[in-house]
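Researcher: Good morning. I'm working through a list of sequences from a screen, and I'd like to move beyond sequence-only analysis. For each chain I'm collecting a predicted structure so we can compare shapes side by side. This is the next one on the list. No need for commentary yet; just the structure.
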Amino acid sequence: MTDDAYLFLLDDAAVRLGVPPAAVGDLACMETPAVRAWLDAQGTTATAPELRLLPPEETGAVPGGAERLPVPLSDEELGRVRARTGPEAIARVEEQLLSYRDITDGRDELIGRALAAGVAPHRIVELTGEDPATVTAAAGG
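Model: Good morning. Structure tokens for this chain:
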């Protein structure tokens, strides 16, 4: 384990490893000449989707061939990074997914009430983000 966090570049921005530095807020290290030079040398920016940051205890997860740079973080900055990458962050998202399931359990009934009240199907689609076919099915046709 190292005392430094790591900035690194992923080959595939769709991979969910680490956290984009921009999502953590202002980080003093991002303004240092070393980080600026490294970003320039990589041909990327501080807001590039493939740029990621991991706290010291997770740097072993950085892919072997990935371009990487150790960066020091303050205790407060490190806390923000950990909040976005740790098991707590995953638990929060899973909790949100469960609450979404609870909301969708009564979806058809709500759509039916909206239709009965005279809300146009296209407006229901706009408001809920539901697929038009789902609204049509809830309308009974």
